[in-house]
Amino acid sequence: MPKLREKLQQSEVWKSIFRHNYQDTNRNRALQIVDNVFLHLHPVRISRHATNIGFTWGMGGITFLLFIVLTITGVILMFYYRPAAEYAYEDMKYLMNDVAFGPLMRNMHRWAAHLMVITVMLHMFRVFLTGSYKPPRQFNWVVGVVLLVLTLLLSFTGYLLPWDQLAIWAVTVGTNMAKSTPLLGHGGPFGEALGMRIDNDVRFVLLGGTQVGPPTLLRFYVGHCIFLPLIAAVFMAVHFWRIRKDGGISGPTPNTKE
Amino acid sequence: MENLNESKVGTTPSPSTSISDNAQSPTVPAVVPPKPTAAKPAVTTGVKKPKQDRAPENDHGIWRISRRNFFSVAGWAAFFVFLATSTIASLRMMFPRILFEPPSSFKAGFPDDYIVGEVSEKYKDDYRVWIVRETDGFYALSAICTHLGCTPRWLVPESKFKCPCHGSGFRPSGINFEGPAPRPLERLKISFADDGQILIDRAITFKFENGEWIKPDCYLKYS
Known about the structure:
The structure holds 2 protein chains of 2 kinds. By secondary structure, chain A is mainly α. In chain A, 62% of the residues lie in helices and 0% in strands. In chain A, helix 5 packs antiparallel against helix 7 and helix 8 packs across helix 9 (165-176). The mean pLDDT of chain A is 89. Chain B has helices spanning 3-11, 18-23, 70-93, 124-127; strands spanning 105-107, 119-120, 129-134, 137-142, 153-155, 160-162, 169-170, 176-178, 187-192, 198-206, 220-221. Chain B is elongated and about 95 Å long. At the A-B interface, helix 9 and helix 11 of A face helix 2 of B.
């Protein structure tokens, strides 16, 4: 067995995929991180106190974990859910009653979604308390605010998909607020002056019509499953990369500008 | 790991850019970027970034249109024009031309189909309209709550409209009297069609707070 392992690790295929062995030297450990596409966003080394849970609460990491959980369970749910007004509610019922592990997947998705909003809030709260929004981390705070908005939008768009009375009227209420958008909503300040009507303002684009209907369901579905997660993933990559560039997780701000 | 950045810093003798500021991760011992050599000719006016393949004083940048860089400028211009038009096209695509929604005006049957003193919910499901028959005529109420747009319910025993979302209440006239709704329900244009049926146009609304309920199209006289 050790011989086979040796042979495997010496093979061309293995060596072309894994460039570094497990030599326990600082250099080699750093190379393992740097040469890995998934890990290279992270710092090669962190200070001892960065692992102290009391400093960060681990909220950012938990949020990311929940995002991964949501992505996986969401993709699984997509196999059974059709975003058309005739089917959406029935498919949701089907998932909850007859699909094997359907309730587990849907409930995981639901609870992880609720939790993610909470952990994002706690993460921001912690960042505020520890002053981690201060230079040179101020840009990453802005990226974080964008991610908060994306999280809330993901939550809101997902809320419509069960297509029951609660979903439809909650989204009706939510999108009616878009009516009052300044300049871009037909009920908002300067909206009418700019020629906004019920059938050409920002709410109309969100709904794909003048009321919550089948086009709204499709729009929210595409936004929920494709558009918003993609944008969020890009912003997350920047967010994690910036942590490293701005002095690493936790700890005082480095003196980069002398 | 920082090799890339260092080499970049080394080849850019211009005043340190933002790249070099951020590149210095505190965990890696900061390598002092090579100082711009004093022998380098001073950057002449109008030239911001020296290019590598040309002495800075001979480099006029890419935005001066000359015979040499005509295609470069034209190519970039075409690229940005393409980008702008495709953005506009994508945005325009999000505005549907055809709406698969109930039409704004509809015929609501003959006046004698209605019972005096009753609020008819016959057209609520399809058109979100209540038709109220009084002794001397009709008026049509929009079944859209003026708070946040839910559909209120007509409660016969209490003789009021009650919104299930946040509890706004309206009198049969449409006047709000409880809950968060800030103004009365809107009334809709009501008239007779050529064949004697009641014709309702939901696109034309009358707001009480603007004093529009006294307008003739707001009330259909019939007795």
